[in-house]
Amino acid sequence: MEKKKSLGQHFLYSKHYLAKIADAAELAAGDLVLEVGPGDGTLTCELLAHGTNVIAIEKDHRLIPLLRQTFAKEIASGKLRVVEGDILHFDISKCFPTVESRESYKVVANIPYYITGAILEKFLSARHQPSSMTLLVQKEVAERITGHPSTSSGSPKESILSLSVKVYGDPAYVCTVPRGAFAPPPDVDSAVLVIKNISRRHFSTEKQEERFFALLHTGFAHKRKLLARNLEPLLGKEYPHILENVGVSANARAEDLPLEQWLKLITY
User: Fold this and answer.
1) Are 44 and 35 a contacting pair, CB within 8 Å?
2) CB neighbours of residue 39 within 10 Å
3) pTM here?
4) Average pLDDT, the chain
5) Separation CA 17–CA 19 (nearest Å)
6) CA 211 to CA 213: how far, in whole Å?
7) Rounded distance, CA 52 to CA 32, Å?
8) Which of 177, 180, 207, 205 is nearest to 190 (CA)?
9) Do 128 and 253 belong to one domain?
10) What are the pLDDT digits (tens) for 159-199?
11) Which of these, 37, 115, 182, 188, could form a disulfide with 10 (CB 3.0-4.6 Å)?
């Protein structure tokens, strides 16, 4: 079947890297896994082999009959649910109709590159967050989030994306996946990214969470400006003293601040 470029379809067929993804997710029998974009089911097969229960959400209607035929036995036994839908518009609560049924779940997926940020935001900020996310993403994005060493010199810089991930969980770069492992091959290499220990442990209230992201987006609004000037509208005239109190240099830019200093700012 012809792959749709509009859906960013690059299917992974390497058994070696499929196993790497499953291993990174630390799957155990009975785990509930939400898989985004199962495609023709190669990763689904690996997940089921670990004894997990899988909810697979696929946007491409052409693949639904194939999945239901391939995994007829697993669907009949209740080990697999195949849902046709767009993950960006999918209501996660449908998987857990009552508060009592909101069991722990993991997200494992080979996702289209162009919706990486949107998927991370959707699940990390969800009311019922997954315990972990294991994703196949563009190599450069995984490096940016984790600060993984790359060909560039100098210390890693933070970004809105990296800080938005780190405030909810602990990201780690697992391995590089060469473009040749896919069909059709993408234009760039990929990487397995795992985010563990997902929670809202850094926020005691919803207002603190809102304040954090307001500071983050304001701080990165004008990259050429120093952070102090960017944050003046939110922190007020006392901004020089506030930044000094949390240990931020007057010459610092938003990308220079680690998560710990951003979290100190939300108390002001």
Assistant:
1) yes
2) 23
3) 0.91
4) 90
5) 5
6) 6
7) 6
8) 177
9) no
10) 999 999 999 999 999 999 998 888 777 888 999 999 999 99
11) 182
